[in-house]
């Protein structure tokens, strides 16, 4: 497993003044500690955390720490590729600001597709807890007739464009790893040629993971949605943290799988 844990989490200040976002505590336990426990419960013991902001705080956790020295000026895709030497023949990529149940991870690990993208069909009620206008923050996710993702991560103008919500948890296996690296190399070449990667709005350094996933779809790669119904939370702001803590206290997280 590779955990993207380089960010500061400015919307979580002052909680992140002295620690990275992944070490903010959810009901008394750091997010990273929860992810490590979930991984081990699901049988994953080889864990890499890519740090950046206050990376020294990651010492003492049972992970291999890799640095993104340019964390302040780069985004998720550049962070992920700081750990390219750990991709091997397959890996699970996890955002560092999400918490999910072992059953969610077990279901992802059991999915044989070369690229499996975890998506939550029960997202709407959760978004209504988090946001005054759920549509204002939600992103598109559309699935085609062959059960592959055809659109992900775009600005949504209608709930009809959201069949589920991407949670930040993806598995790449075998040819899927090659597809991932090929897409990244193509984006690098596009930028060297003076073009915007995948004809999008962001530079290579600023690419979101959904930009890369959509770019892969555009290149003809098949991304399989691994659907869940809740079983996870995201901690992106102080208000998110309050919602997640209440969900956990009430026992309403659900298994997700």
Point out poorly predicted stretches. Answer: none
- How many strands appear in the DSSP assignment? 13
Rg result? 17 Å
| H-E string | EEEHEEHEEHEHHEEEHHEEH
In CATH terms, what is the fold-level topology? Spore Coat Polysaccharide Biosynthesis Protein SpsA, Chain A
Looking at this structure, what is the CATH superfamily?
Spore Coat Polysaccharide Biosynthesis Protein SpsA, Chain A
Q: What CATH architecture do you see?
A: Alpha-Beta Complex
Using the coordinates above, name the CATH class: Alpha Beta
What would you call the shape? globular
Strand order of the largest sheet: 5-4-1-6-11-8-12
Quick recap:
The chain is α/β, with parallel strands linked by helices.
Describe the model.
The chain is an alpha/beta fold and 257 residues long. 31% of the residues lie in helices and 23% in strands. The chain has one domain (2-250): Spore Coat Polysaccharide Biosynthesis Protein SpsA, Chain A (Alpha-Beta Complex), CATH 3.90.550. A 7-stranded mixed beta sheet has the order 5-4-1-6-11-8-12. A two-stranded antiparallel ribbon has the order 2-3. Helix 6 (175-192) crosses helix 7 (209-218).
List keywords for this structure.
single chain, 257 residues, alpha/beta, Spore Coat Polysaccharide Biosynthesis Protein SpsA, Chain A, seven-stranded mixed beta sheet, two-stranded antiparallel sheet, 8 helices, 13 strands
Question: Would you spell out the secondary-structure blueprint of this structure?
Answer:
Layout: E1 2-5, E2 25-26, E3 29-30, H1 31-41, E4 48-51, E5 64-67, H2 76-81, E6 90-95, E7 98-100, H3 102-110, E8 115-120, H4 123-130, H5 134-137, E9 139-143, E10 149-155, E11 165-173, H6 175-192, H7 209-218, E12 224-228, E13 232-234, H8 238-250
Parallel strand pairs: 1-4, 1-6, 4-5, 8-12
Antiparallel strand pairs: 2-3, 6-11, 7-13, 8-11, 9-10
